[in-house]
């Protein structure tokens, strides 16, 4: 079946621009996660949804970062007034059950470059 | 704060040369230890979940083991297609996955 999909796959933004990254989880998956992966590093947790509820946003690096999942399926990660330090790969993952104990399946990521 | 340290950072093996990748961790209330494989330009691909010390899981040429302080990913008779970055992550009481930096494995034919 279809896995987690993300769009766009690549995004180049000028410093100060706003960007929106989309994640389509596996159908029926309750939990959705966003991670940020810098070059040569492991993914770092940003935020977590269970259905439409954002249960943990403690990993968001600043108030310029905002995530939503209004209908409990597709999620959007928005970054306002992008800075060069925002350049990274943004990964989305989903899991079947509520709660992060379940296996998380990752999408291919969106590579963001801020110039 | 949960921490994961993976070693070595990079490993080059000859095809057929078995070896082990190490993942050392400190976590408050371990709820699971995960191994993922990541190929360049792709997202992490799930390999194993281990829940308690002494547990072992196998898949083809890979075997993961877990103690109270570390996990090993053993690779038996690797092939060039096993070349990838292997990520270890722990799930602790704070319900967040904490990843290590990964180990880049290169298998030469």
What is the averaged pLDDT score of chain A?
94
Class from helix and strand fractions of chain B? mainly beta
Helix count from the secondary structure assignment of chain A: 0
Tell me the strand percentage band of chain A. over 45%
Main sheet record of chain B: 6 strands, mixed
Structural class assignment of chain A: mainly beta
> Which oligomeric state applies?
heterodimer
Task: Specify the biggest β-sheet of chain A.
Answer: 7 strands, mixed
**How many helices of chain B does DSSP assign?**
0
Give the overall form of chain B. globular
- Low-pLDDT runs of 5+ residues of chain B are none
Q: Tally of extended strands of chain A? A: 11
The percentage helix of chain B is: under 10%
Describe the structure.
The complex is a heterodimer of chains A (115) and B (109). In chain A, a hairpin with a 6-residue loop joins strand 7 (65-68) and strand 8 (75-79). With 115 residues, chain A is mostly beta strands. Chain A is built from no helices and eleven strands. In chain A, the strands form two sheets. In chain A, strands 2, 4, 5, 6, 9, 10 and 11 form a seven-stranded mixed sheet that branches. Chain A has a four-stranded antiparallel sheet with strand order 1-3-8-7, with no helix packed on it. Helices cover 0% and strands 58% of the residues of chain B. The model of chain B has no long low-confidence stretch (mean pLDDT 95). In chain B, strands 2, 4, 5, 9, 10 and 11 form a six-stranded mixed sheet that branches. In chain B, strands 1-3-8-7-6 form a five-stranded antiparallel sheet, with no helix packed on it. Classes of the chains: A mainly beta (115), B mainly beta (109). Chain A binds chain B through residues 4, 33, 35, 40-45, 48, 56, 58-59, 91, 93, 99-101, 103-109, and chain B through 4, 31-32, 34, 36, 41-46, 49, 87, 89, 91, 95-102.
């Amino acid at each position: 079946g279809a896995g987690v999909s993300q769009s766009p796959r690549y995004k180049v933004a000028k410093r100060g621009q706003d960007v929106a990254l989309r994640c389509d989880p596996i159908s029926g998956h309750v939990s959705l996660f966003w991670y940020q992966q810098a070059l040569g590093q492991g993914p770092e947790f940003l935020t977590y949804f269970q259905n439409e509820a954002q249960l943990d946003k403690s990993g968001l690096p600043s108030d310029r970062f905002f995530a939503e999942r209004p209908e409990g399926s597709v999620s959007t990660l928005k970054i306002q007034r992008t800075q060069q330090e925002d350049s990274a790969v943004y990964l989305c993952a989903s899991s079947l059950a509520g709660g992060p104990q379940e296996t998380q399946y990752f999408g291919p990521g969106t590579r963001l470059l801020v110039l | 704060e949960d921490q994961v340290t993976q070693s070595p950072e990079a490993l080059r093996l000859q095809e057929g040369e078995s070896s082990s990748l190490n993942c050392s961790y400190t976590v408050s209330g371990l709820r699971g230890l995960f191994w993922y494989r990541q190929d360049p330009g792709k997202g992490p691909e799930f390999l194993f979940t281990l829940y308690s010390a002494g547990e072992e899981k196998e898949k083809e040429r890979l075997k993961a083991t877990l103690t109270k302080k570390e996990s090993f990913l053993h690779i038996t008779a690797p092939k060039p297609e096993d070349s990838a970055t292997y990520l270890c992550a722990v799930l602790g009481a704070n319900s967040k996955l904490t990843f290590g930096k990964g180990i880049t494995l290169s298998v030469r034919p």
